[in-house]
Amino acid sequence: MVGVNREQRRLIRALRPAPVYRPSFGRALAGWIWRHLPELLVLALLMWVWNWSVSRIGPHETTAAALGLVLVAATVRPVRRVLTALFWCSVTRHRLHTGLVEVRATNRDGRLPLFLSVLPAPFGERARLWCRAGIAAEHLEDEAERLRAALWCQDLRVIRDPRSSALVTVEVVRRDPLAGQPVRSELLDQLGGVQ
Q: CA-to-CA distance for 92 and 153, rounded, in angstroms?
C-alpha cells in the first residue's frame, strides 16, 4: 500500500469539491440548538431569575440587584476569572466549528466531528470531539496551523484518545501557565552569591 503524506492529504482535501450536507429543517434546527445550547440555557436561566425576582421584590429592586451582581462580577477577581473562562469556552466552541468548516474537516457526507465538551484548562480550553467515520485525528493535525488562526490562540494540540481513535482532544493554548515571575531559590543564597 502506498503511503500518503501530510501534503498529499492536504492537496486531496483542497481539490475535492466541498461536500454539501443539507439536513432537513428539523435536523438543522436541532443542530443549531445543540451548538447554541449553553447560551440558550444561560439566557433561559437569566429570564427565569429576572421574572422570579420581579414577582418577589419588584422591578426597581431587581434592577438594583442585577447592577450589584454585575459590579461584583467585574470587581471580584475569582468571579471575573470564572466568567472569563466560560466566555472563552463559548468562543472556542464557535470558532472551532467555523474553523472545521473552513478547512473541510468533514467526512464524505459533509458532516463535522461532534462536539462533546469544551472546558476551561490552565492553559486555555480543552475541546473533546467525536470524529465520525472518515475523519481522523491526523486530518485535524494537518490543519493545525489554520485552525490555530481561526481560534485566535498561541498554539493548538491535537491528542488522540489511546482507547478510541474516534475521540480526539483539541487543546487550545491561549497562555503559558508557567510564565510570570521566576521562582526564587534559596539554594542560590546558600552558595554564597554564585550565580
A: 10
The arrangement of secondary structure in 77-177, i.e. its CATH architecture, is 2-Layer Sandwich (3.30)
List Cβ neighbours of 79 (8 Å cut-off, separation of 6 or more). Answer: 72, 73
Element (H, E) at 129: strand 124-130
118: closest CA among 102, 95, 138, 141? 95
d(CA 37, CA 34) in angstroms, rounded, equals: 5
Query: Kind of pairing, strands 155-160 and 124-130?
Result: unpaired
C-alpha to C-alpha distance for 116 and 167, rounded to whole angstroms = 9
Q: What is the 8-class DSSP label of residue 136? A: -
pTM over 0.70: yes
**What are the sequence ranges of the domains in the chain?**
23-75, 77-177
DSSP lists the bridge partners of residue 158 as 170
pLDDT by residue for the chain (195 residues), tens only, comes to: 456 777 777 777 777 766 666 778 998 898 889 888 889 999 999 999 999 999 999 999 999 999 999 999 899 999 999 999 999 999 999 999 999 988 888 888 888 899 999 999 999 999 999 999 888 899 899 899 999 999 999 999 999 999 998 999 999 999 887 776 666 667 666 666 555
